């Protein structure tokens, strides 16, 4: 009986996964390490992780403001939740750091924990990495080539993420399930590639993507390293034959003098063909740039937190022990203590890196896992991973906050047992500072 | 190093912006959450401690009062018993006195009656004697019918009296 049930459940689950594969299979996601830039404000790139961070901040501030706007001695509603969280955190801190230090460290540690936790969990919301703006990547790639040509610069690294998928000819960034994805790579080897060569590759790539054109001998969508003049001609012929396919806007020798853009000549065909632009009459090449992305899948953000953690730990250490704090790092009483001090100093800085990349690695990996599984098996399996990621998000927030706390406690400890009088002095200093601080 | 930074998307403005974000959040939360909530928690803890202290005090006071009342009750009971004992003593004394008085009265009355009886008897005797003398005289006069001198007269009387005394005694 129970065996029958089990079989039914397994079959239903498999069926559900298969249904997902048929119905909800999307284009292959682009895994991009740096956060996508949505818009620019001055020299500041407003990336999607930044927008998510702001969203998390606004949610935190508004909710806590509403919850604590009218504080009552007998709590109710949101005040209960906020008080429970604060009480829990204070209790944990007092266990580790003692009540005096706990109150001092509390705001920073609690903000670390709450902000990271909310950001991580928000990153699991369905619209993260899903909705966003579409970028007309087809024009964008040509523009890149043009700019490089005008500045006489060769391509030494991959341009942007010149890939995307084909969207509807209405021009609206609507990605349909099962839309084809296209991948354009320049394929830079040891030598830099000139803009002209890139243009040829692009033409071939367009022909391959939009028409039945196939490179003889070359397999797949990836542009071959060597593009022959014949190949380019055939590609252009194929593009021209199909009414829906993109068209090259060619400039003749005299035309381009008065023009703002000078156009780019083909490397294979020479000056005989100068391309001034590309027109997409039917389907376009587009790239979706998600509007929201998990805050700590961006190294900038984790690094910022790590720096704050580092600065706060050093600040607390200096404030509590005065200049005596530095004795831990610069100990001239012997060769071995000196060496140990230098190691301590190094580890202090290495912490920044480990803090930043522990959080980044976990969150980014989780995001990639979810994106790729959504692509491979859209239904069911992803749910398990979501549960796992909830756990990871909590653990990482707790780890970040707890490690900062532990390092802070280590920093404010009196570590020189040999000098009793000095320790007493330092303790006295702390007391007086404590009283003036309040 | 620079390439690694580019590949990871590290750029200084965003880094600074994130640090600023965090600091702003920290400051705001300090005012919207940490300070009021911690103050509230402390206040509540204080109030509870106060309440517990007051309850303890009240309990101590109550038990104190109870002990005092018990003590007073005990004392009152003692006093009552003393009063009752006193009263019983007084009653006994009064009873005793009364009995003694009665005794005395009775004795006095008896004595008086004895005296009265004695007196009565004496009087009766003297009355009887006088009457008897008279009777004797009369009798003698009658018997003798003669006039006797006074001396003989007296002597006869005396003799008669003496005889009557003897007769009386016998």
Distance between the termini of chain B: 175 Å
Q: Could you state the order of secondary-structure elements of chain B as H and E?
A: HHH
Spatial shape of chain A: extended
Oligomer: heterodimer
Largest sheet report of chain A: 4 strands, antiparallel
- Residue fraction in strands of chain B: under 5%
The class by helix and strand makeup of chain A works out as alpha+beta
Low-confidence stretches of chain B: none
What integer is the average pLDDT of chain B?
85
Number of domains of chain B: 1
List the helices and strands and how they pair.
The complex is a heterodimer of chains A (438) and B (170).
Chain A: H1 2-23, E1 37-41, E2 44-47, H2 48-68, H3 78-122, E3 132-136, H4 137-150, E4 163-167, E5 181-183, H5 195-210, H6 229-241, E6 247-251, E7 264-266, E8 270-279, E9 284-290, H7 299-321, H8 335-376, H9 381-412, H10 420-437
Antiparallel strand pairs in A: 1-2, 3-9, 4-5, 4-9, 6-8, 7-8
Helix pairs in contact in A: 2-3, 3-9, 4-5, 5-6, 7-8, 7-9, 8-9
Chain B: H1 2-8, H2 12-144, H3 150-169
Give descriptors for this structure:
heterodimer, A: 438 residues, alpha+beta, three-stranded antiparallel beta sheet, 56% helix, B: 170 residues, 3 helices
Explain what you see:
The complex is a heterodimer of chains A (438) and B (170). Chain A has 438 residues and is of the alpha+beta class. In chain A, 56% of the residues lie in helices and 11% in strands. In chain A, strands 3-9-4-5 form a 4-stranded antiparallel β-sheet. A 3-stranded antiparallel β-sheet of chain A has the order 6-8-7. In chain A, a hairpin with a 2-residue loop joins strand 1 (37-41) and strand 2. The longest helix of chain A is centred in the N-terminal third of the chain and has 45 residues, at 78-122. Chain A starts with a helix and ends with a helix. The mean pLDDT of chain B is 85. Chain B has one domain (2-123). The chains are: A alpha+beta (438), B mainly alpha (170). At the A-B interface, strand 2, helix 2, helix 3 and helix 7 of A face helix 1 and helix 2 of B.
């Amino acid at each position: 009986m129970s065996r029958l049930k089990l079989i039914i459940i397994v079959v239903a689950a498999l069926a559900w996964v298969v249904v997902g594969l048929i119905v909800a299979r999307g284009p292959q996601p682009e895994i991009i390490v740096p956060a996508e830039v949505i818009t620019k404000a001055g020299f500041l790139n407003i990336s999607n992780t930044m927008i998510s961070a702001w969203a998390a901040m606004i949610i935190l501030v508004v909710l806590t403001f509403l919850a604590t706007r009218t504080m009552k001695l007998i709590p109710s509603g949101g005040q209960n939740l906020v008080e429970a969280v604060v009480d829990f955190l204070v209790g944990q801190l007092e266990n580790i750091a003692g009540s005096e230090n706990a109150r001092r460290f509390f705001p920073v540690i609690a903000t670390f924990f709450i902000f990271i936790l909310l950001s991580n969990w928000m990153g699991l919301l369905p619209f993260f990495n899903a909705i966003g703006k579409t970028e007309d990547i087809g024009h964008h790639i040509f523009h890149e080539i043009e700019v490089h040509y005008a500045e006489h610069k060769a391509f030494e690294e991959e341009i942007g993420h010149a890939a995307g998928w084909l969207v509807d000819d209405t021009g609206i960034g609507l990605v349909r399930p099962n839309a084809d994805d296209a991948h354009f790579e320049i394929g830079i080897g040891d030598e830099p590639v000139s803009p002209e060569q890139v243009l040829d590759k692009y033409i071939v790539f367009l022909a391959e993507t939009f028409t039945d054109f196939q490179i003889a001998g070359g397999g797949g969508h990836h542009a071959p390293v060597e593009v022959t003049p014949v190949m380019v001609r055939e590609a252009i012929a194929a593009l021209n034959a199909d009414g829906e396919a993109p068209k090259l806007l060619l400039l003749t020798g005299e035309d381009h003098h008065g023009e703002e853009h000078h156009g780019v000549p083909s490397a294979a065909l020479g000056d005989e063909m100068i391309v001034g632009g590309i027109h997409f009459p039917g389907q376009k090449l587009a790239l979706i740039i998600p509007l929201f992305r998990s805050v700590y899948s961006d190294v900038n953000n984790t690094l910022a937190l790590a720096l704050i953690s580092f600065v706060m730990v050093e600040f607390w250490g200096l404030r509590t022990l005065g200049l005596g704090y530095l004795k831990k790092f610069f100990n001239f009483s012997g060769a071995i203590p000196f060496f140990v001090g230098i190691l301590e100093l190094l580890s202090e800085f290495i912490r920044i890196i480990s803090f930043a990349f522990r959080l980044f690695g976990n969150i980014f990996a989780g995001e990639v896992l979810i994106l790729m599984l959504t692509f491979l098996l859209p239904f069911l399996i992803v749910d398990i991973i979501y549960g796992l990621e909830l756990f990871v998000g909590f653990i990482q927030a707790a780890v970040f906050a707890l490690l900062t706390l532990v390092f802070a406690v280590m920093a404010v400890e009196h570590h020189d047992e040999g000098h009793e009088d000095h320790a007493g002095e330092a303790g006295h200093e702390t007391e007086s500072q404590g009283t003036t601080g309040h | 190093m620079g390439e690694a930074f580019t590949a990871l998307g590290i750029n200084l403005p965003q880094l600074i912006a994130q640090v600023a974000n965090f600091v702003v959040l920290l400051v705001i939360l300090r005012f919207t959450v940490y300070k009021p909530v911690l103050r509230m928690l402390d206040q509540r803890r204080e109030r509870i401690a106060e309440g517990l202290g007051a309850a303890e005090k009240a309990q101590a006071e109550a038990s104190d009062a109870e002990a005092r009342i018990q003590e007073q009750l005990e004392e009152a009971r003692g006093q009552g018993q003393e009063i009752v004992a006193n009263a019983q003593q007084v009653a006994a004394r009064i009873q005793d006195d009364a009995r003694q008085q009665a005794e005395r009265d009775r004795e006095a009355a008896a004595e008086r009656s004895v005296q009265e009886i004695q007196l009565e008897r004496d009087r009766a005797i003297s009355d009887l004697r006088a009457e008897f003398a008279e009777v004797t005289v009369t009798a003698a006069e009658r018997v003798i019918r003669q006039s006797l001198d006074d001396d003989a007269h007296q002597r006869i009387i005396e003799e008669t009296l003496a005889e009557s005394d003897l007769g009386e005694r016998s």
